[in-house]
Fold each of these.
Amino acid sequence: MSALLEVDELEVAYGASQVLFGLSFCVKAGEVATLLGRNGMGKTTTLRAILGLTPALRGTVRFRGERIDHCSPDRIARMGLALVPEGRQIFPNLSVKENLVAFAANRSGTANPWCLDGVFELFPRLAERTRHMGNQLSGGEQQMLAIGRALMTNPHLLILDEATEGLAPLVREDIWHCLDKLRARGQTILVIDKYVQRLIRLANQHTIIERGQVVWQGDSTQLAADPAIWQRYIGV
């Protein structure tokens, strides 16, 4: 598999405070990858740099072979990179259907693009609440809507930032089951989450960061075999 996203020697700072120090990892086309680490270790800053929201001091970010570290966020999105943000950030005064169609596009040029019927098949609860406003949904339903909204852009790469945070266990499992289906469909995904045992079952490759640096990289077999790594760097 070729690399869809390549982050190489990335350094980022907020004013005089440097956060990332030579961060490097890649996400291959068709795989599920994770970015792991405790809160405050640089995961969100890494995402912001990838998405063009925070400029890099040094290093490069390439998406589909093209450098994007100096591109605007809207151009990066149009290239086929979609984010399911922490906190969901759906439009509270739009209906479920309106949220889904607001930015619908076929950015990956797939022959079988996501549409309303496909999203409703993936998330039957949303089909039952088509006319409900965003602020009338439960937290789990809002998360489903945020994922569905991102899928409606038909991205090359789907990024999920803490997609199961704050959800009830049964709803959280619904989200994991959805991600299993997306993986089976061949969707390339980068996941930031803390549930390592579930991520081991879902993902192919893992990158752990500590204080803005990569401290461990490997596949699910390697991560499962070394729980001490979890305790040391993730705190589970």
Amino acid sequence: MKILETKDLKKYYGKGDIQVKALDGVDLSIEEGEFTAVVGTSGSGKSTLLHMLGGLDYATSGTVTVAGKKIFELNENDLTIFRRRQIGFIFQSYNLVPILSVYENIVLPLELDGRSVDKTFMNDIVRTLGLESKLDNLPGQLSGGQQQRVAIARALVTKPAIILADEPTGNLDSRTTQEVLGLLKLTGERFHQTIVMITHNEALAQLCDRVIHIEDGRIIDDRGKSMPAEANEEVHA
């Protein structure tokens, strides 16, 4: 089942000679359960793409559809609610609330939405991520890898349609990077979760089910999905 789709997605900044085409006509579809990496150099448009997919910014033109909903057609309040319920975010800087415990950070999206915690599901996530003994700790008492585990748990707890991970291992050493990526793959498979990960790390991307390369705001390669013949010719020219 298709979870996410973009059509002719564009994001332009400025006008005339100084116009920057951060995204320049991106067509993309993601199926349920896929773990997809979007790879590109700095300035390629990958982070802009993630912001568009998550409804964190509006497009110049084009559409983004998540779980059957065209998100740019929602008003600001409805979009906020939709994001909280259907899109999980994992950021490079963890974005945990320093004065809240690990448990409170994990369940925060549910509390903001006025929903009760599915304790069985919550406990399963906590056990899978090895956080049982850390629930009463504050984020400042954890290592970087442990904080990112908390961020993964927070993204999973709402049972979203899709999780968007923005350079989730960017602040971690190589050993912890492999550990966190392994946990992302494990949780994706265990909880049947669809994940899109933005990264500049080609080696990490190769561990995903599908690898999309973006440059100058355009998809230039999509490994794991067949590209049109003319696109392949352009990529390999």
